[in-house]
Amino acid sequence: MRIGVLALHGAVIEHIRTLQAIGVEPVTVRLPEDLEGLSGLILPGGESTTMRKLVARWGLREPIMALAESGAPILGTCAGMIIVAKEIAGGDEPVFPLLDVTVERNAFGRQLDSFETDLEMPIVGDRPVRAIFIRAPIIERVGPGVEVLARLPDQRVVAVRQRNVIAISFHPELAGETRIHRLVATMAAEFAEPREGTTAAGTEPWSLGEAI
Amino acid sequence: MTAETSTWATKKGLAQMLKGGVIMDVVTPEHARIAEDAGACAVMALERVPSDIRAAGGVARMSDPEMIEGIMAAVSIPVMAKARIGHFVEAQVLEALGVDYIDESEVLTPADEVNHIDKHAFKVPFVCGCRNLGEALRRINEGAAMIRTKGEAGTGDIVEAVRHIRTLMSDIRRLQSMREDELFVAAKELEAPYDLVKLVAAEGKLPVVNFVAGGIAIPADAALAMQLGAEGVFVGSGIFKSENPAKTAEAIVQATLHFDNPKIIAEVSKGLGSPMRGIAAVTIPEAERLAIRGW
To answer: How many Cβ atoms are within 10 Å of A58's Cβ, its own excluded?
Structure first.
């Protein structure tokens, strides 16, 4: 099973090392042919405006949409969260309209407002997640069918999942946090080799038996 | 669950988010928008690009805050700005403006010939120039959260940038080949803190992100820097002193991304018009060289 990391720019090597640390073979994705045979894809942090241009320039939009729509897990961190949102506050066109949320870019301000904190994220266990926010976005509106995975103490939403798509505002790959990548790897394994009985029409192989 | 701002992880982390990208010098909001449209991952706001600073002579200082604010308002990507080496009040002013990164830069006239800025004292992160590993580690020890090799700014000549990234990378490889008990003397010779020397020897890389700067003028220059070990590039005069800035900027972004794919570099290099004319670094007298500023 191989999981790709979109490598147009940004925190690519950090995600690759995190995948290697949990025993998953990573693949760097710069061109459409790099997507072949992937069971999941990570969209890393970086600048979403830069990624938007490069996704269009190298013809990655359609094949990544197809991979996501086939049910392969997609994890977007920071800029990756912005580019999977169906709606971006301020009116920018969506890049991969996969997640029924509205995202606000640079929601905390500029670099001086970047911060880190511990967050409860029950889907990965009881131990809090060390969350590093860098010029981070937040989820302003959560659509129906979107599960909230983590909130700040002031209740603002910073991690969500809708079926096979997970988006988080912060950077587990900078904090030595592997549990979110493990969750994606589990979803990718189920996508690659659906369990007996889960492939019948109408079932969702990515659901992992949890309420969504 | 208390939130901590401006931690080392957030300072160094922003540079990690810029990797694989191009940071472009811009002097007006319009330039900044051209850079952003071309795919720049950040811009450096300054009054004059280095080749104009070189031509103008005189003392080069921090830019007008109003001009920096104009650029911050024009784009959504991070905005960096330059302070003179050792001029911590210029840095305080830039921090007060809310710039995303400060470049303590040899392109401006140094304000202190002994001390660099104590960058730990600031909430905003700093990038600093270097010509070799010792210089890089001294800057990191002072609190730099990102490094760039200097090159010779404003020349459009890549030769000094190549010298500096090659020197840095070979210094790192030499440390990796040493026995642990040889690192004490290595630290002495590098004039760098032992703990940082030991860390570099163990990891085979700097503890912060390193870009290449100074002399990049065409897409192949950017790809050369990347193949030599850069994690991204700064382009100063090379874009807005070229015949077609928007096209040149975009081509340099693509060549930085696909630095190991000569077919793509060939494709994006077609029909860009004249690059900046440039000035051979070898013809610049010692006293006019920018890279020797800082130590």
So the answer is: 18
